[in-house]
Amino acid sequence: MGDVRTYRAGVVDLGTDGHRALIEQVVAHYRGDARVRAIVVFGSVSTGTWHVLSDVDLDVVTDDGAVIEPAVEAAALFGPRAAIILPGTDSVDVVLDSLEEVSIRWHPLATTSPNICASAQVVAGDLSTADVVAAGDGNRAQPDHQQLLDAFVRDAVYAWKAISRANSWNAVAAVQRMRQCLVALSGRRDDLRLDPADPAGALAKVIAETAVRFDLGPRRHLLLKRLGYGQPEAR
Q: What is the pLDDT of residues 115-146, one digit of tens each?
């Protein structure tokens, strides 16, 4: 990185000592690397909703002409500590021998994902958080609200039937798909705290959260009402 700026005031608030050590390790590894323009932390470690077992989600913003081989980068970053390396085209998921997990994506600024914008925090580099968020927002596609709401209610019906048949695994999976629809509709992660041991309670919470934020319309409302879930007034 050129003019490296590490935002210490932010780093000290990022997760556990272990989380911060991993972030600092990545920052130190890329210090002086001309390919790298910024290192971004996002997800629960950035927002403060982390658990001690949370993984560390990182974006490494690269120069437009940089050539990156994710598996090679991960091996160089973590060496023999990397027990498992699962590379993608521009990303990698790593499980360390300490059971800590790190996910990293390398990309030019122009291909920043809009999915990181709500929680992105630049911790090093010559780009600001605002620069990264603006790039990600520029790639945000307008969601198909009607299709997403249809998928949401379909999975609500599926989850309700699974609960009625004492099939908790399928119910939990359906509720998680509903949650993904909510994220796609709102453009950010939700802040729901759901208990998978209580799929009926989780289903009710996700429906309530969505119904107060979006107009589900009469036909979807009727289906939810038949399941026993009324629709509060949309905001």
A: 899 899 999 999 999 999 999 999 988 889 99
Q: Where are the beta strands (DSSP E) in the chain?
A: 36-42, 56-62, 82-87, 91-96, 101-108, 121-125
Single-letter amino acid, residue 19: H
pTM for the whole structure: 0.78
Whole-angstrom distance, CA of residue 194 vs CA of residue 159: 14
- Of 177, 169, 178, 155, nearest in space to 199 by CA: 169
Domain, as residue range, for 216: 145-227
Q: Are residues 80 and 190 in the same domain?
A: no
Verify that 88 and 29 share a domain, yes or no: yes
* Pair of tokens at residue 184: 């796609």
- Say which residue the tokens 């990022």 belong to: 14
Amino acid at 127: L
